[in-house]
Amino acid sequence: MFDQKVFELIDNEMKRQRGGLELIPSENYVSAQVLSAMGSVFTNKYSEGYPNFSDLDSDESMIATEILPNHRYYGGQTNTDRVERLAIARARKLFGADHANVQPHSGAQANNAVYNAWLKPGDTVLGLDLGYGGHLTHGAPVTQSAQIYNFVRYKMDPTTGEFDYDEIEKIAIKEQPKILLVGYSAYSRIPDFAKFAAIGKKIPGCLLMADMAHVAGLIAGGVHPNPFDFGFHVITTTTHKTLRGPRGGLILSRGVVGNPLKKPAKTLANIPTLIDRSVFPGTQGGPLMHVIAAKAVAFHEALQPEFKKYAAQIVANAAELAEQLKKRDFKLVTGGTDNHLILTDVMSSFGVHGGIVEEVLDRIGLTLNKNAIPDDTQPPFRPSGIRLGTPAITTRGLREKDMEQIAEWMKLAIDNRDNPSVLEKLRQEVQEFSQQFPLPSDKQGEKDGSN
Ligand code: DSN
Description:
The structure is a single chain. The protein is α/β, with parallel strands linked by helices. It has 17 helices and 14 strands. Helix 6 links the parallel strand 3 and strand 4. The longest helix is centred in the C-terminal third of the chain and has 23 residues. The mean pLDDT is 96. Bound molecules: D-serine. The site of D-serine (DSN) has 4 residues, from loops.
């Protein structure tokens, strides 16, 4: 029987996405090919274990056709092995990694797998505090990993909103972390990876880990530094933000790629194999092969020259949007942006908290999220800030010239938040404007690559 309820909701969500603009900096619109791979028969298959890791530098047509011995726990792996090997080969190339584990179901799973690979219960991790732009999985007390490991969290300098490297070094020397973690969900500048690496190298046995979920697409597109170039050992990321793939996780590492069936010594050189064993069987069961197929497609897209232009356009759009917001009296944390993301203190700009701004903008079809700012005195559901970004609207085809209009709608909606007729007029304008920019999966010829 046709499941009308669910398919109606899918249809409604499609209309919502077509008729508005996505400004949440961690969201994007995937291509028809990514969608199609994700909705494919690979969802039917169990594939616990790993494919063979040999010859991943070979030509892709060889990887897509060669027959290798089955190293997994179930039969029927001819196609899953090939598709996972393609995903691994492409991810390595994209980020200059020695190894890639494409199986984590999410960014949180990826981070937890790295902790489990390198730490014993009680070991110390130094990461950014959630309230200052860090992520839940970087040691927020409500998480499972915070019950297992000792997270010590550094904060941003409240006057500049930026990393305070002297303070981080002081804490690192005192706490001797086994992992020094750089990563964030609400930071609009570029970290000094060389400084982080220099701090980590002063601590014996310290793993340098970068959670680059937000900026992975910018790194892949060559418009953001790559932590591997500064001696980092591990990069974790999600695959669906700036990287524009399916929802999922990815762990990239530098070191010696070994046989995941054999337990290696716990050394930094063996980190690729320690991570493989930690993902499966350490923290996950069967990989989601339909998602891995879609990751392979997204990595292929990110390896194309157009992706470099896309990444550069994300940054150019964000810079222009920041300028247009400042012209309209929005106070920006750090004063601007160097990446895809803007954090603005709407409480001190307009005397209204982020929850209200999120809601009022949702009503006119601009989607973004409320967010804490450094040293926020407001509670989490009524924080002082909002967070927005340009990856999705750039995919949609918006350019610098369109940013003024978005900033203007935002200001008008905040000023008229208690005026339903103005909000309705703005909603119609946003809808008409958005419909000029089809979703990539709506474009003719996208699926078969003919456009
Ligand atoms: N929820 C993601 C974000 O929006 O940044 C992080 O996991």
